[in-house]
Design a protein that fits this description.
Elements: H1 2-33, E1 35-38, E2 42-48, E3 51-57, E4 60-63, E5 69-75, E6 79-88, E7 94-105, H2 110-116, H3 121-138, H4 143-148, H5 150-165, E8 170-181, H6 184-262, E9 269-271, E10 277-281, E11 290-293
Antiparallel strand pairs: 1-4, 2-3, 2-5, 6-7, 7-8, 9-10, 10-11
């Protein structure tokens, strides 16, 4: 009898322990089912019995209705989407482009984009709109312009793409054309053109250098000619001055000789104020001239 009572008590105690453990476990399960955590850079989209709520949860710890509500994390961080985008240029050249798009889902639109599109918004929104934008803008440029005006082409594609996807809640942060690739025939033509341009540039450079050398030589010759002309002018002036001096000297000598030839040997007479005549004696020296009073 005592053994039976002991067995009943033992079973009752075990039942209580199991019950308490079960309750504790249930409480733990209920607690975790009632809480959620939204990672940094994400928005928590609340789904109640399959219906997407308008409000979203911000980063951090939150409570929710257990077993009724589900929280789906939608990333609002910048993501990179890379895709091949074939197109045709204005001059009908086939262009293979590799496109890289940096985008983010706007936090305020996280619930809408999850409700209307779901989690595969890259395939549903970005892929077709990227392809369409690339084709549309590429068709406005020749193949050569796509290379020389790459930045402008990239900016135009970004503007068109932004206009198409912003309404869905996707914000384009940056658009990059990673690579342009053309047909082998076009690449060969571009290479030939570059070679021709380089040869032309080389020829123009050589012509400019030859012109500079020719101008320098002409300037040098002009300076030499001016110097020679100046030397000739100076020499001629010196000869003219010498001839003038010689002519003056010859003229004086001729006049003196003529005077001597015409002199009759008589000395000139000079009468003073009192009427007394003076006789001038011309000697060999002008400083030793004397006058005799007759």
């Amino acid at each position: 009898m005592k053994d039976e009572v002991y067995t009943v008590k033992k079973k009752s105690h075990v039942g209580k322990v199991v019950g308490i453990s079960a309750a504790a476990l249930g409480a733990v399960v209920l607690f975790f089912a009632s809480t959620t955590s939204v990672p940094a850079g994400n928005s928590g989209v609340i789904v109640t019995l399959g219906k997407v709520e308008e409000r979203t949860l911000s980063e951090g710890f939150h409570f929710k209705i257990p077993f009724i509500q589900e929280v789906v994390n939608v990333s609002n961080q910048i993501q990179v989407y890379e895709v091949d985008a074939p197109a045709v240029s204005r001059d009908m050249q086939t262009v293979s482009s590799v496109i890289a798009v940096n985008y983010r889902v706007q936090s305020a639109k996280s619930a809408d984009i999850y409700r209307e599109i779901g989690g595969d918004y890259e395939a549903v929104i970005l892929t077709p709109n990227v392809q369409e934008s690339v084709k549309s803008v590429t068709a406005k440029y020749t193949a050569e312009e796509l290379i020389t005006e790459r930045s402008a082409v990239s900016e135009q594609i970004k503007e068109q793409l932004s206009a198409k996807v912003t309404g869905y809640g996707i914000q384009i942060e940056r658009f990059n054309i990673v690579n342009f690739d053309f047909s082998p025939e076009f690449n060969a033509a571009i290479e030939q053109k570059q070679v021709a341009e380089q040869n032309l540039l080389k020829t123009e450079t050589e012509q400019k250098e030859a012109l500079v050398i020719a101008e320098a030589e002409a300037k040098k010759k002009k300076i030499a000619a001016n110097a020679e002309a100046e030397a000739i002018r100076a020499k001629a002036q010196a000869e003219a001055d010498a001839n003038e001096m010689l002519n003056n000297s010859l003229t004086e000598t001729v006049l003196q000789n003529k005077m001597l030839d015409e002199w009759d040997g008589a000395l000139p007479r000079v009468t003073s104020g009192e009427g007394t005549p003076f006789l001038l004696d011309l000697g060999s020296s002008a400083d030793t001239q004397t006058a005799d009073v007759q």
